UniProtKB/TrEMBL annotation, chain B:
Residues 71-262 form the ABC transmembrane type-1 domain. Part of the ABC transporter complex MalEFGK involved in maltose/maltodextrin import. Probably responsible for the translocation of the substrate across the membrane. The gene is ycjP_2. It is a multi-pass membrane protein. The chain crosses the membrane at residues 12-33, 75-97, 109-129, 141-161, 182-207, 241-263. One of its GO terms (cellular component) is plasma membrane. Its main location: membrane. Keywords: Cell membrane, Membrane, Sugar transport, Transmembrane, Transmembrane helix, Transport. This is Maltose/maltodextrin transport system permease protein MalG. It comes from Roseibium album. The keyword Transmembrane applies. Signal peptide: none annotated. Coiled coil: none annotated.
Length: 441, 277, 286
């Protein structure tokens, strides 16, 4: 038995050595599968591979995983020291988790002018640049212009609107244009357009909340508490999740859930379900990722509502207007076979030409206003994207730490527990606070 | 009540049950034949303007998402994962069934593997596979899926050998036949129906497995279930119901065909049994 | 060749295969279960005694996940066996003449559970799903299938609908394998209908029923794919089965030591259960 084991380990060791010494003839890059990110990366890669100064050994080859379990698989791969790819996808909230297996990169000299400091920051951890930012993800308020116009034109509706908001929210509110909405107005609108509250409502639900116990859904939620001043930690590292800001926000969600202003099965809803609900014409307004805008305003894909759907920045609160923002980007795998080739590719991606090419091919790149103006004709939607990101974008204090993902997950569990009636607000928040203290300190 | 009426009620019950349990499949099939616009306009089961565009879009992207290579990988891995358990479990099943050998340790250990969330072996296996070059190969995937299939294979085979009349192999033994000859020449043929059942069950289980497929493959050996999930996000970021439905249907064709084979095999073995009895 | 040598040779291929495939992973897992280990220090775990085991046993979520799995496993196995038995026996007279019916009835179990979960995500969706569509059409309202109150019933139903065919198949084969003479003899004694079933057919099918129940219970107990696709861990963890608990602590929280300790506990408990069940069976059989 002992000899068998010896043989096994001997074989294993030599195989490992072999694997690391053979230089692969290209640079393998793992991208974010499907959607505009993939299309854009393919287009940029084609341009890169056609460049004469790129050596044959440094041509880029793309691979993709499944989106289901993407980060779990990436985690396992990186931790086990994979060399199946040289560069891989990074996201703001996961940089801390993957940093131990990544190599910092240096970007081109004009990167700061192309992306701006705040966007470059989405790819930094511990003060080091771990990747080139390629796409921005933030939230829009999606609403139905037809419903709002009708509401604003109808004076008798205002009284009912006021009654409903007074009854459920404790303040008498008037119908307003979504551009001027506070979160209170958002909630009042959601209640007014729900059949359970207002049987005459033209839509079945006033909004759709994505409440599946999933970390991404908590990101969508976060813009609300932030506009009441919420943060994960104060400057001294004390956890501040049991603040009034979080309480106000969670209570508001709870009111909407209990009044039936969001679909009954919301606790199983994520991105796709929410889009389908909105696209069916039975929902008046929702907070959703910017990525949904293309589909929801396309009359082919969303025939019922595309023509009357408009997107703006999320509502405002006592502390201002905010949108949770994170970046996607590409970084270098420390165990890859061709780290230098990967670094060269990433450096090129951070040049102005490459960033523009990426954006023109469909990427949601966060560009500075001077750069974006060059391509504003082709990608008008990138103008508000960059604007929202720089004006309203925020990352929670601790949001890029090694355990950030776990914090989101913890909140997802505890907050949905409260919202679905499993725990009281105090219980849920104190459990979240204890858990976050373990994770962040 | 006359026998006719009784059977008529039986038929009604059968139709009702068949519709209920197959409803998800029927709904998926119907969704796969609808355009995205129709899905949101007409969620019902009947298709107004059938289209194959969802299926076409699977083929359109075959350059980057090659459904044929996923099917091939699944085929190889599933074949390994269904043949190997038979080869390995058959001899042991004989020892367990006939002599009670291994009843206290090997048998419960193997059967217990079915209760384990085998994913806890994922990381160690990953490291092991990495060092011996089995990572991202259909062989590597097939081997671990064979482990997944061992418990049910052993259980079914022990049961099957229990049903083989004891006198048959005793007689051969008295004639001086060696154990392996008895196994191959006498027990094996009688157990063929059970072996076929094991094969089909194992194949379907392996074909339908997701987690190991996700963890242990990257590009070259991606199986169909994992490959299918690649398509779900191919349009925008969320699930595109029509395309997703089409992929599910494509991915399910192989096991469903096997299921039909299984029923043929079952009805044939029943007829054989009736003749024998 | 003595019998014990023979036995050992018969067992060798399987044992060897298991050692090769799972030997190293098991050793590493046992080390991990006694170590402080996360994705960062996979290759250099630090020994921490039995702390993982203590923290698992003190984790209320471990117990609620175990309870969920136990409840789910028992309820689905029970329902599947009853329904499968009723179907097999009641429909046997017409299936015997139309064996293609089997193919129709066992279709659901050919579908990957992960795919099944995805199918239901579409099927149960209030706005694009067929089921709520018809509910609204016929009844004017549709229940919240996946709300906290209803989610257990829903996933229970989904699992039962997919796997009753498994029980049905085994029972139908066992039912058809009952020798004709036995029934004839019993009929001569005046047994028919339910009496025939309880006193003659049912006892003969008992071993099959036990196997079916056992397999279905284990599969229900370790349920993962379909629930995970449909509701994830569920609101506040309401649909966290033990497998989901272990998966989440393994990958999402990176608490590898804890996840593996939980699996080791699970393995030991089920091993003991099976061991004693086997003993009991043998004693009562002898």
């Amino acid at each position: 038995m002992r000899t068998v084991r010896k043989l096994f380990y001997g074989g294993a060791a030599s195989a490992l050595l072999l694997a690391t010494s053979i230089a692969q003839a290209d640079v393998t890059v793992l991208g974010w599968p499907g959607g505009p990110e993939e299309t854009a990366l393919r287009a940029a890669t084609e341009i890169y591979n056609a460049r004469s100064e790129v050596a044959e050994d440094d041509k880029v080859k793309l691979i993709f995983f499944s989106r289901d379990g993407f980060f779990d698989k990436l985690q396992a791969d990186l931790a086990a020291g994979t060399d199946a790819f040289d560069a891989n996808l990074l996201a703001t909230y996961s940089i801390g988790r993957y940093a131990p297996y990544m190599t910092p990169v240096s970007l081109s000299g004009d990167a700061a002018d192309v992306f701006g400091e705040s966007v470059l920051k989405t790819m930094q951890f511990d003060g080091k640049q771990y990747g080139v930012p390629t796409d921005l993800s933030l939230h829009f308020l999606y609403y139905r212009t037809d419903l709002i116009e009708e509401l604003l034109a109808d004076e008798s509706a205002a009284a009912k609107y006021g009654d409903i908001s007074e009854k459920h929210l404790g303040v008498r509110l008037e119908p307003k244009s979504p551009d001027d909405w506070t979160w209170q107005d958002f909630a009042a609108n959601a209640l007014y357009f729900s059949k359970s509250v207002n049987p005459d409502s033209p839509t079945r639900y006033g909004t759709v909340l994505q409440l599946k116990n999933l970390l991404f859904n908590i990101m969508v939620f976060h813009s609300l508490p932030r506009s009441y001043g919420a943060d994960w930690m104060d400057a001294d590292g004390n956890i501040t999740v049991d603040s009034d800001a979080y309480r106000e926000a969670l209570k508001m969600y709870k009111i909407l859930v209990e009044a039936g202003a969001t679909p009954k099965d919301s606790f199983s809803y994520e991105y796709a379900e929410a889009n389908s609900a909105f696209g069916s014409g039975q929902v008046a307004a929702m907070i959703q990722w910017n990525a949904a805008a293309a589909d929801l305003t396309d009359t082919e894909k969303t025939p019922v509502t595309a023509d009357v759907t408009k997107t703006i920045a999320p509502p405002t609160g006592p502390d201002g207007r905010f949108t949770h923002v994170h970046g996607l980007g590409l970084g270098v795998n420390a165990n890859g076979k061709n780290p230098d080739g990967a670094k060269a590719f990433i450096e090129w991606l951070s040049t102005e030409d490459a960033a523009k090419a990426y954006a023109l091919a469909g990427g949601a790149t966060g560009l500075t206003s001077s750069v974006v103006s060059d391509i504003a004709n082709e990608r008008p939607d990138l103008v508000p994207l960059g604007e929202y990101a720089s004006n309203y974008g925020f990352v929670m204090n601790g949001g890029t730490s090694a355990k950030a993902l776990s914090v989101y997950e913890l909140q997802a569990k505890e907050f949905t527990d409260y919202l679905s009636g499993g725990k009281s607000l105090d219980e849920a928040l104190s459990a979240t606070k204890d858990g976050m203290a373990d994770l962040l300190n | 009540m006359s026998q006719k009426v009784k059977n008529l009620i039986r038929w009604l019950v059968f139709i009702l049950v068949a519709l209920i349990i197959n409803f998800p499949v029927l709904a998926t099939l119907s969704a796969s034949l609808k355009t995205a616009a129709e899905i949101s306009r007409n969620p019902g089961i009947f298709v107004q303007s059938p289209t194959l565009e969802n299926y076409a879009s699977i083929l359109e992207v075959s350059e980057r998402l090659n459904i044929f290579s996923y099917l091939q990988n699944s085929l190889i891995a599933s074949t390994i994962a269904s043949v190997l358990p038979i080869v390995l479990c058959f001899p042991l099943a004989y020892a367990v069934a006939r002599r009670g050998y291994g009843k206290s340790l090997i048998f419960p250990t193997v059967v217990n593997l079915r209760a384990m969330p085998l994913i806890i072996f994922a990381i160690p296996l990953y490291m092991m596979y990495q060092s011996v070059g089995l990572l991202d190969t259909p062989l590597g995937l097939g081997l671990i899926l064979a482990v997944v299939n061992l418990p049910l294979a052993l259980l079914i085979l022990v049961n099957a050998i229990n049903d083989v009349p004891f006198e048959l192999d005793e007689a051969a033994r008295i004639d001086g036949a060696r154990i392996f000859v008895i196994l191959l020449k006498i027990v094996f043929p009688i157990c063929l129906p059970a072996l076929a059942t094991v094969f089909i069950f194992s194949f379907i289980t392996a074909w339908n497995e997701f987690l190991f497929g996700l963890m242990l493959t990257t590009t070259d050996a991606v199986p169909m279930t994992v490959g299918a999930s690649f398509f779900f996000s191919s349009g925008g970021g969320g699930v595109q119901w029509g395309v997703a439905a089409a992929v599910i249907i494509v991915a399910s064709v192989t096991p469903v065909v096997l299921g039909i084979l299984m029923y043929k095999h079952i009805s044939r073995s029943m007829i054989a049994g009736a003749v024998k009895g | 060749m003595t019998r014990s040598t023979e036995n050992r040779i018969l067992a060798t291929p399987l044992v060897l295969f298991l050692l090769v495939m799972l030997g190293f992973p098991t050793i590493l897992d046992i080390i991990y279960s006694f170590s402080e280990v996360s994705f960062e220090n996979l290759r250099s775990p630090t020994f921490n005694g039995g702390r993982n085991y203590i923290s698992i046993l003190n984790d209320p979520e471990f117990w609620s996940a175990s309870w969920f799995s136990m409840k789910f496993g028992l309820a689905t196995a029970f329902a599947e066996c009853i329904l499968g038995l009723v179907l097999a026996v009641y429909l046997a007279p017409i299936i015997r003449k139309n064996t293609w019916m089997i193919a129709v009835l066992i279709m659901p179990m050919m579908i990957a559970p992960a795919m099944m979960g995805l199918m239901y995500r579409l099927l149960l969706h209030e706005f694009v799903g067929a089921l709520p569509h018809y509910m609204f059409y016929w009844l004017g309202d549709s229940p919240a299938f996946l709300s906290r109150e209803n989610v257990f019933t829903t996933v229970f139903t989904i699992e039962t609908l997919q796997w009753t065919p498994f029980a049905f198949l085994l029972f139908f084969m066992a039912y058809e394998a009952i020798p004709g003479e036995m029934r004839e003899a019993a009929a001569v004694d005046g047994a028919r209908g339910l009496r025939m079933f309880w006193h003659i057919e049912m006892p003969m099918m008992l071993p099959t029923i036990a196997v079916a129940f056992f397999v279905r219970f284990i599969d229900g107990f370790r349920v993962f794919d379909n629930i995970f696709v449909l509701t994830g861990a569920g609101a506040g963890g309401a649909t966290t089965s033990l497998s989901i608990y272990i998966y989440l602590s393994f990958f999402r929280s990176g608490e590898i030591g804890n996840a593996i300790a939980a699996s080791v506990i699970l393995f030991c408990v089920s091993f003991l259960a099976l061991f004693f069940a086997g003993r009991l069976l043998r004693r009562s059989g002898a």
